[in-house]
Amino acid sequence: MFAKIFSTLIVASALVAGVVSKPLPKNRLTARGDVSFNNWGGFSSLSGFDNFYGSDNFEGSITSQTIVTEQSQELVCHSESIEIIQQRLLVIQEMAKRIITEQVCEVETQTVVFEQFHASMGSFSHDLRRTSGHHAGFDSSISSHFNDIVSSDSSSLSTNDFGFSGKDVGSNTVVVGGSNWNDETSPASVGSAYSAARGAFYGSF
């Protein structure tokens, strides 16, 4: 079931294999302080934490992108019903909860790694609103490991090393075409959508 839900995503990602990419580097934000979480609080489960993104890059926002030009030209968005989108994002959400609670035992480490995950996802909002200096795309190489999260029996979480770190994200960026973004009108309309969504969020408390 897990594989079926994202089969189209995996197929799209797999097409990148063998494609020659054209580097179009684009830097995001500057460093905002060096905070180390290696062995923070004396927890050995946080050993090597900083190695993933870097101690000056907690949420992974300091990175560059290399666009896989050919794949970006081929992949075009197509609209599905909003409920279909919400279902799939909920699957990702609940899998994140499972990974954090099943593969980390110290609640302090659970808290730190979740806040990193949450902040990293939040930075994508800037990409969508074109305020980060980054293209709104995804890393096809990293996303291709989606089916590897669970073991072959599809019941237990895998524990093998995928062979990448957070510093690699963006190295194989695919920018999906076909959106309605307009440089003249979209900053205002997307800003309005963002404000409405944030208002609904804060109003829920």
What does this protein structure show overall?
The structure is a single chain. The protein has 205 residues and is mainly alpha-helical. Helices cover 43% and strands 2% of the residues. The protein has eight helices and two strands. The protein has helices at 2-5, 7-14, 50-53, 69-74, 82-103, 107-128, 140-143, 186-203; strands spanning 138-139, 173-174. The chain has a two-stranded antiparallel sheet. The radius of gyration is 18 Å and the shape is globular. The two termini are 34 Å apart.
How many alpha or pi helices? 8
N- to C-terminal distance: 34 Å
Strand arrangement in the largest pleated sheet: 1-2
- The counted number of beta strands is 2
Low-confidence stretches: 1-32
How does the overall form come out from the CA principal axes?
globular
> What percentage of the residues does DSSP assign to strands (E)?
under 5%
H/E series, N to C?
HHHHHHEHEH
For the biggest sheet, the summary is: 2 strands, antiparallel
Helical content (DSSP H or I, runs of 4+)? 40-55%
| Alpha carbon gyration radius | 18 Å
Structural class: mainly alpha
Mean pLDDT: 85
Q: Brief description of this entry?
A:
Helices cover about 45% and strands about 0% of the residues.
Keyword list:
single chain; 205 residues; mainly alpha; 2% strand; globular
